[in-house]
Amino acid sequence: MKHKEQKLLHGKIIYSNLGVLKLNKYAFFTPPKTMMLLMLIGLSPISQAELVVTEASIHLSPMSSIPSAGYMTIQNKSQNEISIQALSSDHFEKVEWHETVISTDGIAKMRMEKKPVIPALSKVVLKRRGKHLMLYQPSKEIETKSEINLIFKLSSGLQQRFPAQIHQQKKSHHH
């Protein structure tokens, strides 16, 4: 056999060292096409924690001494809960996850969560008067209506970057 091909005649599948898989001589998949096919049918070719972030927006504070607020929807599509070990951005000195909690006397207080958890196969919405990001001390000039990246370091060791749209904050957000 040329090129070290192996033939399995009963299944009509031919493997070759050229990285090509032929099925019944009609279809073929190179490794990148196989990976794309796995992703299209919802199977991850590599088992990694994965978050999907949508509608990410940062509401810039009018003064750099007052933190800006970040809102978004975070979806965990994996079978495992994912903990966010650290949050950062190239445009801010510090990024924290906070939650607004209403005490029994009706007073709203902010509580910081060091390592927030996104449960398996679920989504968490970050919004005003709920869970949200606080972004402290802009380290670079940020244009309204531009986009910046938020960086999530996950419990799996994976680091994911998500774009967030910049908006001017309408009301100040105090702690």
Structure description:
The chain has 175 residues and is mainly beta. The chain has 2 domains: 2-40, no CATH class; 51-168, Immunoglobulin-like. The chain has one helix at residues 31-40; strands spanning 6-8, 13-15, 21-23, 27-29, 51-60, 68-76, 82-88, 92-102, 108-113, 117-118, 122-126, 131-138, 147-154, 159-168. Strand 1 (6-8) and strand 2 form a beta hairpin.
Q: Please, what is the average pLDDT?
A: 79
Radius of gyration (CA) equals 23 Å
- The helix/strand order is EEEEHEEEEEEEEEE
Sheet having the most strands: 10 strands, mixed
Number of structural domains: 2
Annotation field: number of helices: 1
CATH-assigned homologous superfamily of the largest domain: PCu(A)C copper chaperone
Report the sheet-strand fraction.
over 45%
CATH architecture of the largest domain: Sandwich
3D shape = globular
CATH topology name of the largest domain, in short, is Immunoglobulin-like
Class based on secondary structure composition and strand pairing: mainly beta
Given this structure, which CATH class of the largest domain is correct?
Mainly Beta
* Helix coverage percent: under 10%
Distance between the termini: 74 Å
Oligomer: single chain
| Uncertain stretches of 5 or more adjacent residues | 1-29, 43-47
Number of strands: 14
